[in-house]
Amino acid sequence: MFAALRNWFDERFDWDNLIAPLRHKTVPTHRLSYWYFLGGITLFLFGIQVATGILLLLYYRPGANEAFESVQYIMTQVKFGWLIRSIHSWSANLMIFTAFAHMFSVLFLKAYRKPRELTWVSGMLLLFLVMGFGFSGYLLPWNTLAFFATKVGTEITGQVPIMGKPMMIFLRGGEEVTGATLTRFFGFHVAVLPGLATVLLLLHLLLVQRLGMSVPPKLEVQWTVNPSARREMTFFPNFLLREMMAWYLALGVLGVLAAVFPWNLGVKADPFVPAPAGIKPEWYFLFMFQTLKLIPSKVWFIDGEVLGVLAFGLVGLVWLLLPFFESDQPSHMKQWITGLAVFALAYVAGMSVYGHFAK
Amino acid sequence: MAILPNRFGLLGVAHDCALAGCLVLVACVGYGQTKNSCLDCHAALPDPLGVTQEKFSQDIHAQKGLTCVSCHGGDAANDDPDKAMSAKAGWKGNIERRQIPQLCGSCHSDPAYIRQFNPSLRTDQLGQYHTSVHGQRLAAGDTKVAVCTDCHGVHDLRAPSDPRSTVNPVNVANTCARCHADANYMKGYSIPTDQFTKYSTSVHYQALAVRGDLSAPTCPTCHGNHGAVPPGTDKVQNVCSNCHAFQDQMYEQSSHKQAFQAASLPGCVVCHGNHGITYPTDAKLGTGPEAVCMRCHTPGDKCDQARAELLVSLTKLDQAIRNADKALALAESSGMEVSEARLAQGQAVDSLTKARVTIHSFRTDLVDQDIQAGLKIAAKDLQTGRDAMVERNRRRAGLGVSLVAIGMVLVGLRLYIKKLEG
Question: CB of B413 within 8 Å of any CB in chain A?
Fold first, then answer.
């Protein structure tokens, strides 16, 4: 039956010719090949987000008086609503984790080098968007933690010189975090960010397809000297089948997390109660939050928080443009970039752990 | 002086000196007009005559523009003590204790005068004082009793709303205790001196001192302030009902009302005590050390049976709420969403509280209505908690099946890859 169906498509759409590029596409095989799966896993989790997000949209109602109750309804009354919401929340966190891991793996394998500068730039922009998804989606259940985390987060945005205050008012839809902020964040979460992400994702995938997989510099030199040492596998079906195994593993992890640790709904937000003690943002913003906490209130004549925000902005820009500081010749590779990557990984991990345990 | 052209030589210098002299003279005259010569001496005197500028500036009267002269008479502007404190200047000297209420009342009983400073301040304090035990004893010649300054202070008197005021709700019990807890001072009055000690152990004191509830009762709440008297035996219920209105309504319907009146028993105080009222527990209905019913009733009689029935009902609802709480807590710790049941638990607790209030009617049928309402909610919440745990187990079973299916797909994929590449 499968063969008949295949023939039916082949007669009409020249199926074999259509998938021919995939058959010709190869993936290098070496001891670090498994890092190639991270991008695919992130893509798979993004797909899960889109699917579960659409299902949640069937019942979710944005608005200060309805959002919390609608999520509560999804979790208690809708058939498998708890599972969909839990998977959406856990998958979001896993996706941000794998996106970070993917970014660092690309950095350590020096896969951002010429000619893949734009792949890196589009990937970094996608990482920023993913964090935007996390920030905007966190407010949508309208619970106490989300409310105050958004308040703190948007306040930090307000510290940006000149543009900060207008940006904060734009994000909040006013001076304070209110129902207007919720409606706005909902719009960003389900329309603006997905639109931008789709365009960037298509560009990113197109570039990956066009430029192929990068090989670590040392191996590249070896394979150039001795072409017979080169090892590859076809993308379709060999690599894709392995990638599918990774997806299934990710699905299993997601299932365990969603069923054993269902995502908590918390308490409905009340703007008139004081913020709970020791409130913290989600783990992926923790390293920035903790850094801002540690900076003195005044550094020379500059406000400490403003300095921190500006420093993070500058670091983000440098990170985005990192490939343009690198040489494409393995013999001239800049060691400081690898050193910087090691420091960044240690800093992000260390500050996140410190922020988690700090009072 | 630079604005004067320096062209007159010595004449110019003399002109400058004359002008400076005039300025000093004007300053001295001005100083003389505003100074309070009383404080010049009294600041250096020991207590009770000592009053410093710093102390007096804290006094609400000083802040409103009153001076020593307002109460003591005399001429504060005169630097000569003999003239300042002369009969000619209207000096009254030390105010005798028996004169103090009248002196304070000369302003505080004058609505037109008081209205200038605080239109909402009452002006019946003196009238009330005359009706108080303090006032009546003072009139009878007992100068040991409290007069205005004993409670409010003198020379650094603050508004009652000021937390540092001796009559602020947080301080007033201590102020009363200065005399009423002093056994030596109270010798001869034939009243106990353990009220403050008892009050310090009471639920009312806890509410005030621990929870910071300024509406919690202190001495004046039950005894009155300026018209302070012990509430009469038959009026205790009226005093308590100012706050405990529902208990009062229930007590009005009870058989105890008439029985206590007939026996001249002081209503609420019979079971709850007065100054040392502790947090009432269901044990009051029991037969243990805290039990109150069996102080009057005979074991096995009709009332004892009703008591036992009420205790069983309250205990049953209390236990049902605890069981539901436990089940919901377990479900919550498993990540199950039971917040609606949690909210409903509040209503069950309200029913228990209402039943405990209805107890004051001593009618089992009325109490049972509240108990049944609470039991119904608690039973539903308990079921919600149990259902949540069943659902949790079902989810985990579903997860197990899914993981097996995922595992099988993984094995299948691996075998297929092996076959493909083999």
Answer: yes
Q: pLDDT digit string (tens) for B46-77?
A: 888 899 988 999 999 999 999 999 999 999 88
pLDDT greater than 70 at residue B199: yes
Q: How many domains does chain A have?
A: 1
The verdict on a CB contact (< 8 Å) between B339 and A265 is: yes
Query: B6: pLDDT confidence band, cut at 50, 70 and 90?
Result: very low
Q: What is the token pair recorded at A90? A: 């856990």
User: What does the pLDDT look like over B277-301, one tens digit per residue?
Assistant: 999 999 999 988 889 998 899 999 9
Q: Is residue A5 part of a domain?
A: no
Taking residues B174-201, what's their average pLDDT?
95
Q: Is residue A43 part of a domain?
A: yes
Range of the domain at A113: 20-357
Mean pLDDT, residues B245-252 taken together:
94
Give percent of chain A above pLDDT 70: 100
In angstroms and rounded to an integer, the radius of gyration of the C-alpha atoms of chain A is 23
Q: Residue A131 CA to chain centroid, in angstroms?
A: 6
Low-confidence ranges of chain A (pLDDT < 50): none
Cis peptide before A115, with omega less than 30 degrees from 0?
A: yes
**Residue A308's domain is classified under what CATH number?**
1.20.810.10
**Between helices A117-139 and A81-108, what is the axis angle to 10°?**
150
User: What are the residues facing A28 on neighbouring strands?
Assistant: A232
Q: Which residue has the tokens 């069937």?
A: A58
Q: Do B410 and A245 touch (CB under 8 A)?
A: yes
For residue A214, tell me if it sits in a domain. yes
Contact between A168 and A157 (Cβ < 8 Å): yes
Chain position carrying tokens 């009238």 = B127
Q: Quote the CA–CA distance of A160 and A329 in Å, as a whole number.
A: 39
Instruction: For residue A62, give the nearest of A139, A128, A115, A125 by alpha carbon.
Output: A139
Domain boundaries, chain B: 55-71+100-114+123-168, 181-215, 302-416
pLDDT number for residue B34: 54
* A-interface mutation test, from B328, B339, B381, B420, most A Cβ less than 10 A away: B339
Task: Name the 3-class secondary structure at A143.
Answer: strand
B35 falls in which pLDDT band (50, 70, 90)?
low
In a domain, A239, yes or no: yes
Cα distance between residue B121 and residue B109, in whole Å: 10
Closest partner residue to B416 among A241, A248, A249, by Cβ?
A241
Provide CATH code, domain B302-416: 1.20.140
